[in-house]
Amino acid sequence: MTDITFTQDQKDRMVAKIKTYFEDELQQEIGGFEAEFLIDFFAKEIGPYFYNRGAV
């Protein structure tokens, strides 16, 4: 499977959503840099599971 990639605009929107989630649900602040690492982790490690489920 090829790597999952996102445009910078998509990544920016995801970072904003992650930061909001952390603040609202976990009462924790997360920086943009950390949020991007989290996106990269999910894309690489978790993304294939979602991709494979979508093919069913």
Question: Would you give an account of this structure?
Answer:
Helices cover 75% and strands 0% of the residues. With 56 residues, the protein is an all-alpha fold. It has one domain (9-48). Helix 1 packs across helix 2 (32-54).
Overview features:
56 residues; mainly alpha; 75% helix; globular
In summary, what is this structure?
It comes from Alcanivorax nanhaiticus. This protein has 56 residues and is mainly alpha-helical.
Secondary structure elements and their pairing?
Elements (H helix, E strand, L loop, with lengths): L7 H19 L5 H23 L2
Organism: Alcanivorax nanhaiticus
Pfam families: DUF2164
Protein name: DUF2164 domain-containing protein
Please estimate the helix content. over 70%
User: What's the number of structural domains?
Assistant: 1
Low-confidence stretches: none
Number of strands: 0
Strand residues, percent:
under 5%
Q: Tell me about the largest β-sheet.
A: none
Overall 3D shape: globular
Distance between the termini: 16 Å
The string of secondary-structure elements, in order, is HH
Radius of gyration: 13 Å
Structural class estimated from helices and strands: mainly alpha
